[in-house]
Amino acid sequence: MVFVIGGTTHPPHAWASLGVPHRSASGAESRRGASKDVFMKVSNHAGKRRGARAILEQLERLDRVFACYPGPMFPPPPRWSRHITTASVTGTNGKTTTTTFLAAALGRLARPVLRVTTLGVFLDDTPLPFSASHDAFLECMRRGFEAGARHAAVEATSEALAFGFAKAWPISVAVFTNLSRDHLDAHGSVEHYLASKAQLFVHLPAGGVAVLNAWDPASALLAEVVASGARTVTYGITSRAPGRPVLRPDLTAEGISVGWEGTRARLVPSPQYRTMPAEIRIRAIGEPFLENALAALAAAIEMGVPPADAVEALSRVPTPPGRFQVLGEGPRAVVDYAHSPDALARTLATARGLTEGRLVVVFGAGGDRDRGKRAAMGEAARGADRVVLTTDNPRSEDPAAIAEEIRIGLGDHPDVRRVLDRAEAIEGAIAEAGPRDVVVLAGRGPETEQVFASGRRPLVDAAVAAEALARRGA
């Protein structure tokens, strides 16, 4: 069962950690739950620079693609759902990490805590049986409620929100991480993509809270569509581009120090957070994770967690699998989920800051997805000393053709290789690396199989890297 848009197909697992209902374009369940009013608001703001008329014409086309039919996409939330205070996290990158951080902080209020991410559904650290359907999501939440859970942190993808999830579960706190190019194969335009995410903020209840990244330009648009009666709080790191925040920050991190042992920074709070500790330390490596931790910290405080308790809880959170996951010591391999141009650029910037030798990156791009980002992925990789182009999940496309589209963005980079067997690419990069080099394996994170036209093949980047490092004694 697949959902079809613009000639591309998406398997069920691609549609959200929450299990968005979907069928083929000829079936009944390809509906858009996003409010057109929000599309107009967000797009008109963006249109000041690009031309509102052209954007509105594109929205009309998208309306036809996401043909609606009467009736709600999801059933109304069950009555008991109001007893679970829920924060939901959306954005292009960092959703899983932010949700994981937030769940840990909420544990300082009461346990157990429900955590819903693309890695699964958890009651504290216990995984719950889950399949990609809304019924399965509700069953997990019900089980958590019956076990005593009264707080939840839920990751929400743009696809789930476009299909109306913001109305299907009561959200008290909505968190936005960032916006960059991704999923345009599904949404058709950046405006549709952002408008889908905006649903989380438009449908906040009176007394709800929107937590926005003060340095991300999209936050300025989202701030204008936050529901009446909801408050907005902001966070960010001073080193984040653009150089100046687009919103006045309530919680800032500066004096950032990143090492192989983790990340730390000074906290600069506004008066409303005057009891905030002076410093934050996290085990995750890199400024993007610090940004995620600040988002979780602000949300946790708004949900009633004392600031000192929240900061202490964040310091104990292990990095989620496949998020700048470090293996070995000489050389080091880094497994990271970075699969968008912005995420890849930030991951490589973190690695570059820690690398004493050469920086090598092994990556590809997904097939049957947004082709327009492939050259941008290549451009993001220019800062590496060696680039090894390989497969990601090519699906029905020719892996060699995908690699060549990425290569365009690399320009005249002096050291580019193409090894389409991903395991071979990883093994070769590690075998040839010097003892002070860092090899970044980007794009797939904790995924356990690759998807080809011929079917699925098992492959875990971290396992392949660990074996290659063991052969070196690293």
Defining key terms:
about 475 residues, alpha/beta, UDP-N-acetylmuramoyl-L-alanine:D-glutamate ligase, Protein-Tyrosine Phosphatase, Chain A, six-stranded mixed beta sheet, 15 helices, about 20% strand, disordered N terminus, peptidoglycan synthesis, Mur_ligase_C, acid-amino acid ligase activity, cell wall biogenesis/degradation
Give the DSSP E fraction (strand runs of 2 or more residues).
15-25%
Q: What is the strand arrangement across the widest sheet?
A: 6-5-4-7-3-8-9-10-11-12-13
Radius of gyration: 22 Å
Q: What are the segments in which pLDDT stays under 50 over at least 5 consecutive residues?
A: 1-72
Domain count: 2
Characterize the main sheet.
Answer: 11 strands, mixed
Total E-strand runs: 21
Full CATH superfamily name of the largest domain? Mur-like, catalytic domain
CATH fold descriptor of the largest domain: UDP-N-acetylmuramoyl-L-alanine:D-glutamate ligase
Overall morphology = globular
Q: Helical region count?
A: 15
What is the CATH architecture annotation of the largest domain? 3-Layer(aba) Sandwich
Q: State the end-to-end CA separation.
A: 44 Å
In which range does the helix fraction lie?
25-40%
Structural class: alpha/beta
Written overview of the protein:
Helix 1 runs antiparallel to helix 2 and helix 1 (36-50) packs across helix 7. The chain is an alpha/beta fold. The chain has 15 helices and 21 strands. Helix 13 links the parallel strand 17 (386-389) and strand 18 (416-418). It has two domains: 79-315, Mur-like, catalytic domain (UDP-N-acetylmuramoyl-L-alanine:D-glutamate ligase, 3-Layer(aba) Sandwich), CATH 3.40.1190; 325-472, Mur ligase, C-terminal domain (Protein-Tyrosine Phosphatase, Chain A, Alpha-Beta Complex), CATH 3.90.190.20. The protein is globular, with a radius of gyration of 22 Å. The protein has helices spanning 36-50, 52-65, 95-106, 134-146, 158-162, 184-187, 190-202, 217-223, 287-302, 307-315, 341-354, 374-380, 399-410, 422-432, 461-472; strands spanning 3-5, 8-10, 85-90, 114-117, 120-123, 126-128, 151-155, 173-176, 209-213, 231-237, 251-259, 262-269, 279-282, 325-327, 332-336, 359-363, 386-389, 416-418, 438-442, 449-452, 455-458. The strands form four sheets. An eleven-stranded mixed β-sheet has the order 6-5-4-7-3-8-9-10-11-12-13, sandwiched between helices. Strands 14-15-19-16-17-18 form a six-stranded mixed β-sheet, with helices on both faces. It is 35% helix and 21% strand. This is UDP-N-acetylmuramyl-tripeptide synthetase. One of its GO terms (biological process) is regulation of cell shape. Pathway: Cell wall biogenesis; peptidoglycan biosynthesis. It comes from Polyangium spumosum. One of its GO terms (molecular function) is ATP binding.
